[in-house]
Recover the amino acids of this structure.
């Protein structure tokens, strides 16, 4: 696409200079053509920055003194291993990502929310300092708010964390001064307002230069509420309208208020209640000629039963935004939907290359496996409440929006939507820098209608292990403690032997799965099987034909490492065959499994290398990282899983139940074959989704194309 010359001479040339130099050094492309090429934008989502050498400004606790004279104000390794995000190492990962993008000549960086741990001053001030450092080198940053920044629309001075690490390996509680513990002068709690959680007003003031406020260098900047004289952009007017007070809308428990209230009340047949003004921090910016970045604030903080109309800024009067996302935007931010439609229409009319981003996904982010996951796993598992409804996706596509980059779920993935009216929307999930599959996206328009998306993984991160000696102290303390609470928090020290950030995050996700996901997400008998069986045993069990029951397993030791501890005892047990028959049945199933492996060019014994721990770790890593997880597994393991995915009976019998529990009178293979056929079907779906590593989007042709012919897939 040929972009018209800049209205302000020199600005686009400056923004494109690194790309120009890189191109001249590679293929001697004419300078004029390079300057006119659309710039690349790096999307770095869910940084969850924690200022690991920040100042808590407390005489009680300054962190852990280090050998170079700094104080480490960090969270425990146990806290990291039981959280869906790292707290400490992402400090180094963020710098590594910025350095990598800068080295690639990228000067525009979009941050789709959750840039901080929880918008605490220590963390917001810390990341702002880093952004200013790179800004001085020529980079520009554009933030869209996430549900962690802000955690609530207004300041929370009661917040805090229980798990800062002390020099002797223990946990230290650190709260803001308004907390009950600080008011009661609890000696076990460190009190500092560096741990308060800031609302919109403070965040817009502190982070204004990173997109939230207009920059004189930009060609255009607006909010959903902007009104410019004569309809023409004016920097002075933009400045005057950019403050938080000029960007408020009325939100009520039932829907958006203001001009939308009467129609909403008529539709619902009741009055709107619990209404208050809240900031919408959305903005549209044109940092270089022809490129529009639409930063959408999709946070919806619903007024709840604690809402006090006499004190509408009390943070407890609002629900968190994490589960609301785009589903609530439709009803509670109607002005925003109208604005998005206006932006897309203007972008099309003016030939602008539009990249929209917000913190939340706009469509199913589980590769369309959401309903299957709800059916198989525990209620609420995998945070399926956060999946946008079909009507939400349809409504967004109806605005004309075609390209959206989201975060929130810490996932790497892609999905698309089209309807009979010709609407087409692609959602690109930018992964977190603070989990396994840590990566950022590079998005660039190749032409008017073709967008190129590349995923840059962060395997090598300088200094990622800088804090490991401090974790060793924590490990030693937990191992030496006789307290049951400490014993329950023991973790595997092998994570401190990892040799790269990629290896570290892989190990972290295995421990996160073991310490949290398996209990929270997997039903008892499924957890037992996934934990106890290796892939060889799973393949054999998929072929097992036996009438020996779960209740009889205790009488057939040594065949497979399962029991009936998760099953309910039947009041009328029936023994159809002797327990000893299981060994013969197992031998027959082993022969069938061996043939399946051989048909795929594999050896059955090699399947045993995939332990239960590796299996459920691989499953959860694929949930989060998609295509990147398969690359981590390697071709042989992917091939082994593909054999398992096709090994189960076409229609396994439904297992017997006693109430809501599995009956111990089920034949040994019954529950496994019924449940894990579904698990492996979900696994396959997650690992054979739309391309998510390097791909192109044809907006006119409504098509995604994989640009990496070597990408692994379960197809």
């Amino acid at each position: 696409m040929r972009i018209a010359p800049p209205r302000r001479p020199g600005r686009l040339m400056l923004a494109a200079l690194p790309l120009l130099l890189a191109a001249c050094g590679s293929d001697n492309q004419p300078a004029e053509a390079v300057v006119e090429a659309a710039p690349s934008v790096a999307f770095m989502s869910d940084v969850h920055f924690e200022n690991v050498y920040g100042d808590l400004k407390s005489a009680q606790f300054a962190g852990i003194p280090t050998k170079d004279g700094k104080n480490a104000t960090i969270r425990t390794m146990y806290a990291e291993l039981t959280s869906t995000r790292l707290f400490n190492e992402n400090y180094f990962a963020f710098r590594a990502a910025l350095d990598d993008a800068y080295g690639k000549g990228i000067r525009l960086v979009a941050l789709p929310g959750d840039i901080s741990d929880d918008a605490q001053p220590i963390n917001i001030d810390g990341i702002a300092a880093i952004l200013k450092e790179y800004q001085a080198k020529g980079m520009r940053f554009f933030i869209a708010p996430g549900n962690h920044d802000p955690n609530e629309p207004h300041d929370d001075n009661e917040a805090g964390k229980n798990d800062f690490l002390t020099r002797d390996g223990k946990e230290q509680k650190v709260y803001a001064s308004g907390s009950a513990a600080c008011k009661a002068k609890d000696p076990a709690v460190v009190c500092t307002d560096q741990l308060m959680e800031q609302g919109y007003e403070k965040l817009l003031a502190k982070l204004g230069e990173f997109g939230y406020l207009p920059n004189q260098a930009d060609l255009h900047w607006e909010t959903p509420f902007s009104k410019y004289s004569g309809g023409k952009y004016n920097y002075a007017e933009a400045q005057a309208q950019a403050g938080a007070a000029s960007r408020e809308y009325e939100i009520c428990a039932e829907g958006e208020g203001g001009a939308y209230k009467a129609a909403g009340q008529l539709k619902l047949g009741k009055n709107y209640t619990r209404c208050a003004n809240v900031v919408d921090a959305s903005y549209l910016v044109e940092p270089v000629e022809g490129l529009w970045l639409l930063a959408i604030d999709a946070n919806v903080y619903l007024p709840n039963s604690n809402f006090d109309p006499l004190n509408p800024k009390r943070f407890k009067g609002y629900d968190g935004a994490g589960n609301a996302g785009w589903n609530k935007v439709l009803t509670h931010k109607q002005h925003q939907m109208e604005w998005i439609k206006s932006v897309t229409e203007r972008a099309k009319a003016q030939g602008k290359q539009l990249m929209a981003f917000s913190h939340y996904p706009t469509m199913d982010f589980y590769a369309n496996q959401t309903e299957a996951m709800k059916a198989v796993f525990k209620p609420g598992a995998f945070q399926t409440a956060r999946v946008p409804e079909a009507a939400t996706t349809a409504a967004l596509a109806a605005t004309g929006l075609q390209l959206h980059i989201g975060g929130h779920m810490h996932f790497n993935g892609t999905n698309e939507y089209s309807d009979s009216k010709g609407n087409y929307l692609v959602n690109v999930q930018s992964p977190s820098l603070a989990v396994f599959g840590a990566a950022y996206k590079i998005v660039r328009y190749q032409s008017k209608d073709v967008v190129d998306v590349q995923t840059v993984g962060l395997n090598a991160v300088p200094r990622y292990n800088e804090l490991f000696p401090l974790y060793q102290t924590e490990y030693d303390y937990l191992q030496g403690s006789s307290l049951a609470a400490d014993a329950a928090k023991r973790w595997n020290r092998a994570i401190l032997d990892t040799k790269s950030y990629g290896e570290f995050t892989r190990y972290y996700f295995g421990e996160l799965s073991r310490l949290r996901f398996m209990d929270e997400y997997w039903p008892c008998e499924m957890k037992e099987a996934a934990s106890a069986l290796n892939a060889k045993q799973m393949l054999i069990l998929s072929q097992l034909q036996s009438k020996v029951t779960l209740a009889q397993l205790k009488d057939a030791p040594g065949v497979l490492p399962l029991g009936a501890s998760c099953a309910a005892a039947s009041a009328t047990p029936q023994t159809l065959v002797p327990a000893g028959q299981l060994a013969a049945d197992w031998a027959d199933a082993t022969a069938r499994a061996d043939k399946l492996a051989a048909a795929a060019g594999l050896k059955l014994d090699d399947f045993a290398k995939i332990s239960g721990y590796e299996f459920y770790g691989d499953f959860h890593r694929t949930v989060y990282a998609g295509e990147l997880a398969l690359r981590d597994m390697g071709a042989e393991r992917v091939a082994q899983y593909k054999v398992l995915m096709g090994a189960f009976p076409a229609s396994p019998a439904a297992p017997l139940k006693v109430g809501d529990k599995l009956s111990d009178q089920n034949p040994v293979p019954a529950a496994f074959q019924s449940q894990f056929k579904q698990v492996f079907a979900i696994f396959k779906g997650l690992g054979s989704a739309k391309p998510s590593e390097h791909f192109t989007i044809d907006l006119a042709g409504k098509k995604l194309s994989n640009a990496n012919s070597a990408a692994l897939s379960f197809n």
Summary: The CA atoms of residues 43 and 382 lie 24 Å apart. Confidence is low (pLDDT under 50) at residues 1-36.
